[in-house]
Amino acid sequence: MNKHQIETLLSSFTGSDVSSPFGPDALVYKVKGKMYALVSQNEDIARVTVKCKPEDGEVLVSQFDSISPGYYMNKRHWITIKLCGEVDSTLLTDLAHHSYQLVVAKLKKVERESLLINGG
C-alpha cells in the first residue's frame, strides 16, 4: 500500500476529517475532533501513525522492522509504520480500521450515534 492508497482509505471512514495542524509535513485524520491517524508528507519513505492497544503495538514492533513506537506520539498507544512494502495491505487496512474504531469507541454516545445516523 502506498501513501495515496492509505490516505484514500483513511478519508473513507465515516465522519473523517483531514487537516494539517502541524504544517505541510503531515496530514492528520480525525473523527469528531479526535485524531486516529497521521500520514507523513515530506519523506522518502512515507509513514503512517495509528493508534493501537499497547499489547498489540508491542507485538507488532517486535515482528516488523518497519513498525516502530509512534513517532512524536505516546509510544504506548501509537505505532508508526513505514510504507515500504514489508507490512501487507490487509494488515495496514486492519490497523487503520482498528485505530479509527478505538477512537470512535471513546467518543460520547451522542457523537457515536451521529456517525451511525450519517452513514456509519
TrEMBL record:
Molecular function terms, GO-annotated: DNA binding
Key words, A-Z: DNA-binding
Superkingdom field: Bacteria
Protein name: MmcQ/YjbR family DNA-binding protein
Taxonomy of the source species: Bacteria, Pseudomonadati, Pseudomonadota, Gammaproteobacteria, Vibrionales
